[in-house]
Design brief:
Its main location: membrane. With 111 residues, the protein is mainly alpha-helical. It is 69% helix and 0% strand.
Length: 111
């Protein structure tokens, strides 16, 4: 028969019960750390999305107010133009204040 060499140096040592518990404890700590990190990242993601939605709502409200102010500005410009009309001012002066255009004798030229 052929001679076979047996390597006795690589025989597995008997398992120590404390080593298995220690490895499980390290795994548990690692998994706990990973879960904490995932939880923190998830909370940050949800918070950032809520902030983005809130900011979009604020931008929409500001845009709506800006459009309303622009319309109000246009309306006030039209009102100012109508109040400045010379025909309106003359009608108010004659009607409410009893004024009349001056005659030639009432006009004094200053040199």
């Amino acid at each position: 028969m052929a001679q076979s060499k047996v390597a006795y140096g690589k025989v597995a040592a008997p398992a120590r019960p404390g080593a298995v518990v220690r490895e499980n404890w390290i795994s548990f700590r690692y998994l706990t750390g990973v879960m904490v990190m995932l939880t923190l990242v998830s909370i940050f993601h949800v918070w950032s999305r809520v902030e983005v939605i809130d900011m979009n709502l604020r931008i929409g409200e500001a845009s709506r107010q800006f459009r309303e102010q622009q319309q109000e500005n246009k309306r006030l410009k039209v009102e100012v133009a109508s109040l400045k009309a010379p025909a309106r001012i003359e009608a108010l002066a004659k009607g409410e204040l009893g004024m009349a255009l001056p005659t030639d004798q009432q006009v004094v030229l200053v040199k």
